[in-house]
Amino acid sequence: MQKNSKRKNISRVSHTDTNSVDAEKEKHESQNNFVDLLPEEISLKIFSQLDIQSLCRASLTCRSWNDTVRNNDFLWKPHCMTLRAVCRREIDDDLESGYSWRVTLLRNYQKSKVKHEWLSGRYSNICSSISLPEKIMYPMDADTWGEILEAELER
Q1: What share of the chain is helix, strand, coil (3-state, %, to 5)?
Q2: Is residue 91 within 8 Å of 77, Cβ to Cβ?
Q3: How many CA atoms lie within 13 A of 9 on its CB side?
Q4: Is the separation of the CB atoms in 108 and 91 below 8 Å?
Q5: Residue 97, pLDDT above cutoff 60
Q6: Secondary structure, 3-state, 13-55
Q7: Residue 15 region, left (φ>0) first, then alpha (ψ -120 to 50), else beta?
Q8: C-alpha dist (Å) from residue 125 to 129, 130, 140
Q9: Phi first, then psi: what are they for 151, rounded to 5°?
Q10: HSE (CB half, 13 Å, CA atoms) of 126?
Q11: CA–CA separation, 145 and 118 (whole Å)
Q12: CA 39, CA 143: separation in Å to the nearest integer?
């Protein structure tokens, strides 16, 4: 009987210690989290200086950063407009369909990279599909392939 009561006491003590450690950790993290400390406009200004890859990484840092980055189209619109130079039709279609700037960017980022490579003539001298680097290929619709073919024919 006494062993059971000792186990319960040890269990209560370790549970209390865990709660206090978690609380201390959370307090320390919030003190170091500029998103929680600064006005939202300042945090957004800081995040707006990041490139696409850094912005995505920042959203993985913690929950408050994720909420701030994910829910502010202000941060994603400039990057999306840059991609629009290559994928105008695709981005315009996504925006007309009601996708947010962030989702539109995520849907078109890889496609814009591949499409840019094709349009710039990087693959003009490829003799067969075996010569294409598989890791950078991306499925594209018929209109996109039509744009690429037109660019090839003009070369």
Answers
A1: 75, 0, 25
A2: no
A3: 6
A4: yes
A5: yes
A6: HHHHHHHHHHHHHHHHHHHCCHHHHCCHHHHHHHHCCCCHHHH
A7: alpha
A8: 11, 13, 20
A9: -65, -40
A10: 13
A11: 9
A12: 45
Q: How many other CB atoms are there within 10 angstroms of residue 146's CB atom?
A: 11
For residue 107, give Cα distances in angstroms to 80, 85, 93, 119, 153: 10, 15, 11, 19, 28
Bigger pLDDT: 29 or 89? 89
- Does this model's pTM top 0.90? no
Q: The tokens of 65 are what?
A: 């950063």
E strand or H helix at 96: helix 88-96
pLDDT at 4 over 90: no
Alpha-carbon 147 to chain mean position? 27
Query: Looking at residue 128, what is its pLDDT?
Result: 74
Least Cα distance to 65 among 38, 42, 34, 105 occurs for 34
The tokens describing 128, both together, are 């067969």
